[in-house]
Amino acid sequence: MLSKLIIKTFIKDRDSISNEKTRTSYGIVAGVVGIIINALLFIIKLSLGLILGSIAVTADAFNNLSDAASSIITILGFKLANMPADEEHPFGHGRFEYISAMIVSFMVILVGLQFIKSSVGRILSPTPVTFEIISFILILVSILFKIWLSKFNGLIGKKINSAALKAASIDALGDVITSSCVALSLVSSNFTTLPIDGYAGVLVSLMILYSGFGLVKDTLNPLLGEAPDPELVENIKSSVLNYYHILGVHDLIIHNYGPGRIMASIHAEVPCNLSIITIHEVIDRAEKEVSKKLKLYLVIHMDPINVDDKEVLKTEHDLLKILNNHPLIKSMHDFRIVGEGEIKNLIFDVVVDSNKKRKIMSDEELKNDIKSKVKEKFPEYNCVITIDEDYLH
């Protein structure tokens, strides 16, 4: 209820999430809310940690401070990502959002390392921790704050498809666990003189580190060029195949330049007996309409295929029977017969499972394997094969 009230109050055109200004507004609001809550929790926990002499509470306090700094960086990331394209960055600055998330991740890791050191010192040189009911209640209140903040960031992160805010949601949920450990250490101080506080501090620090490394992985992948979302891949393929005269698609490549800044290219198979003007009209319309529908920039390459030559159709049919029985081959495309008389080449591309292939054989070994099988069926043909690797599984 509170989340919806904040969104309704501070974000204009809140339903226009495809609009970059609206998306940035969501990111800024989430960042400001994060700063306020984490700054408040830092002040409360630091005061408690100093009063109680608890390293676990103090570690948790500085974790909240790093979260507040993270929110500031998140806001800057959204601001910079919204800068328009220029000559040096023709596809915009959307990856700034990933870079800001990466900085946040390293800050989380730094805090975790620092407090592992402090916690180990507390175990080696223990000091007593005094349980106070007011302090315990305030820790429980901070847990409730973090549960709400996690849901709030998750709600906005899902709504605008923001990796940074989704990561912030997971980070806040991790803080719920760490604060719960702190609460446990306070309760245990009533029943034992063991340095439970130090052990809890180590556990808190390890959880902080785990969260930090997880965030690094999540933000590094899109910067390095991770495999595209399988759902997006299927949406692009099915959308293009819906157009009349497009008989098949392959060689889809997707480049991610930041949230809402995706460029894709795909090859579309079309009948070779149609006029260039007719096919161009279909391809041009598909590019524009699919780009608008899926909110990306799509380029379609035209691949003409023979649909009425009996020799081509019969040979392709028999070749597919051979290839479909091969454990590594997923599909074939761009098939054609080139040459005359006794010198004819079967030219085609095969799509293979990249992980399976690497474990079994090289490209050359695979080509020779296919050629030998084809030669048994078609001794009059030579094969010219291109291997395309499919990284989606």
Question: How would you describe what is shown here?
Answer:
The longest helix is centred in the N-terminal third of the chain and has 33 residues, at 20-52. With 393 residues, the protein is α/β, with parallel strands linked by helices. It is 63% helix and 16% strand. The radius of gyration is 29 Å and the shape is elongated. The two termini are 39 Å apart. The relative contact order is 0.09. The protein contains twelve helices and six strands. The chain has a three-stranded mixed sheet, covered by helices on one side. A three-stranded mixed sheet has the order 4-5-6. It has helices spanning 2-10, 20-52, 55-81, 96-124, 133-160, 163-188, 196-224, 230-241, 276-294, 310-324, 354-360, 363-377; strands at residues 248-256, 262-271, 297-305, 329-340, 343-353, 381-390. The protein has three domains: 2-224, Cation efflux protein transmembrane domain (Alpha-lytic protease prodomain-like), CATH 1.20.1510; 227-306, 2-Layer Sandwich (Alpha-Beta Plaits); 309-393, 2-Layer Sandwich (Alpha-Beta Plaits), CATH 3.30.70. Strand 1 (248-256) and strand 2 form a beta hairpin. Helix 3 (55-81) runs antiparallel to helix 6. InterPro entries: Cation_efflux (IPR002524), Cation_efflux_CTD (IPR027470), Cation_efflux_CTD_sf (IPR036837), Cation_efflux_TM (IPR058533), Cation_efflux_TMD_sf (IPR027469), CDF_Transporter (IPR050291). Residues 33-224 form the Cation efflux protein transmembrane domain. It is a multi-pass membrane protein. Belongs to the cation diffusion facilitator (CDF) transporter (TC 2.A.4) family. Keywords: Membrane, Transmembrane, Transmembrane helix, Transport.
